[in-house]
Amino acid sequence: MSEGAPTSREDAARLDSADPFRGFRSQFDLAPGLIYLDGNSLGPPPKAALARLQQTAAQEWGRDLIRSWNSAGWFDLPKTCGAKIARLIGAADDDVIVADSVSVNIFKLVSALLMDRRGAVAVFENEFPTDGYILQGLSNLTGSPLHVLKAGDDPFTENVSVLVVSAVDYKTAAIADIAAWEKRAALHDASIVWDLSHATGVLPINLARDGADYAVGCGYKYLNGGPGAPAFLYVRSDAGAVRQPLSGWMGHADPFAFGKDYEPAKDARRFACGTPPILSMSALDAALDIFGSVDMRAVAKKARSLGDLFLTLALAAGFTTVSPKPGEPRGGHVSLEFNHGYEFVQALIARGVIGDFRAPNLMRFGFSPLFLSYTDVWDAADALIDILHTEGWRAPEFSRRDKVT
Amino acid sequence: MSEGAPTSREDAARLDSADPFRGFRSQFDLAPGLIYLDGNSLGPPPKAALARLQQTAAQEWGRDLIRSWNSAGWFDLPKTCGAKIARLIGAADDDVIVADSVSVNIFKLVSALLMDRRGAVAVFENEFPTDGYILQGLSNLTGSPLHVLKAGDDPFTENVSVLVVSAVDYKTAAIADIAAWEKRAALHDASIVWDLSHATGVLPINLARDGADYAVGCGYKYLNGGPGAPAFLYVRSDAGAVRQPLSGWMGHADPFAFGKDYEPAKDARRFACGTPPILSMSALDAALDIFGSVDMRAVAKKARSLGDLFLTLALAAGFTTVSPKPGEPRGGHVSLEFNHGYEFVQALIARGVIGDFRAPNLMRFGFSPLFLSYTDVWDAADALIDILHTEGWRAPEFSRRDKVT
Asked: Within an 8 Å CB–CB cutoff, is residue B118 touching chain A?
């Protein structure tokens, strides 16, 4: 446990009163009393996002209609929204667009790299599944070999051109050293596509400084952009990957010239494809404004402290974890192992503490620092420990398995 | 001009009073007095779509949060929404999903077909540009030759495996005979991917009856699903294209098993990829309910009558058209040629008549039958002819070219 960590609820309350983000919860539309430890999966709505959605729907769509492509900036939204994310990940504004999903964006970047230079693609077997699935599909289509790596394997062997890897592991929240990985990749003339889904909005990321050329990430986790919010894609301006095969009209240098030949836009917009879902993207765009004045190092520090507090209390009660221990570098969530994790998470939800379950036995809890307090986390740990001691998870109503997430 | 067509505004008003859809405009949130002839580009909001969006944002996202993947049916939305579209295009419910964009969906279907059987892909040079752009990208990635056809060319030569073609031409609104094309394709063992973007919601389509196995289409035109609404994809259950390379987790048979190997879902859901934009998709889902009780043959008949009326008056005033003439089969829009079409459309907009301009010289007007009346169309033609006679398009305020659409 880090120094100065609370050892009582009163301690936690004292930390809350000194918290630089203590005023931020009121910017979210979150039910009073709810302890939402699933912002790593679906961030709650910033009030500004709900207001913007209303404005986009009623006024821009309902009144200004087709004109809003110009007057409301819909056409530029993938870039204006991308520029807000660029500032969170240490990228130039023009190097980031918002478009499609993480899965589609991985496909675009990896296939673009393979069009520059054939070779194998690689992914760790414990990567978030969709990253591997996409590489399987791309490998089937192009014939590029796919290497599925075990933890600790050296990916940069056997003609591997592209590695897809997460900056923060979706299960453990272990953090990859981007700069170190990039140095190793450069030695082998290989490229890395970073999946920043579990990192953006909770850690300070500096892609340009760390030598990273390619990345994708998610809009609906710590960025609070709404369910299935569009994803983002980063490509450094002087990097390769000039051509990508999902060359839809929104990536054209001049989409409304309706020219016969595809001419890619010069910046990251060449990775746009079809017409973007404006309602969803507007919500994300407004949600990002919460980060406008925020120091990401302070965000990361608080996320770590909250996670350390929860983990310390959980470990003391006998839980085991796959996550880095208190005091060690870690992303915004922690995962506890429990053989009846599904039922346990249901029991927590019944007490107003929302986490999630990942098969086969992980209970995952996210510590979004912008709307969670130290006392929230104290109370969540209290509920966790009480359910453990009373075996509250054994109640029959918690075992129904009709849920998909 | 078709028999019984109005020859005065009073005639038009008489047709309105007998119109089976006369009550439908009140289901849309459309400004009073506005004559919106651009529903072929962006349909206006059904009130139910705005209400649903509010519900999805405030309650499902804001209150139920992550639980809504189950409780609000988010996970099933691509299929429930797809089933509503299936009924408009003569498909089985399980054969349609809503996902991604038209561009991405074309890529999925054509690449899936190429994985079954290599060969060339083909597209007409006057096809909607993104369709050709996507085939260019896919051809660059896979090495499959791309044939760009001129009007009248036989596409089914030289080892062409897949043709992408629109059911309704985006410029002229000419209608393709789906059954006849499919018969020719079958003779050559080729497949057609139909782009239904300008057809769905305004024409009766019967894909299964007509032997069509593959199609994509747009959610934001006649389906009124909102700006950039997700697109749809149709694949007949006993057709090929079992594997597609954009194999993201939402197309997996069991996405939340988090298995290492991609196992495609058995039905059209195998063409889903990443996490879908739920806010945008919810609006589309609610918008589709307007079609629940609608006879698509009556919709098409009214669209044709409205277009015939407009075109007859425009041709009589001296305009020329690239669209099928009054009385001929035609989709929901008509295009007039005018060398200063951009300025002309601006002049119409200033009078409350919204159409659009397509370079170099086409003014396009859509006749969505669910919210337009015969008197609307009469008045629009009146404004059109007055601007022509007074040269109203020459006013300097109509020549600013800062618009992208």
From this structure: no
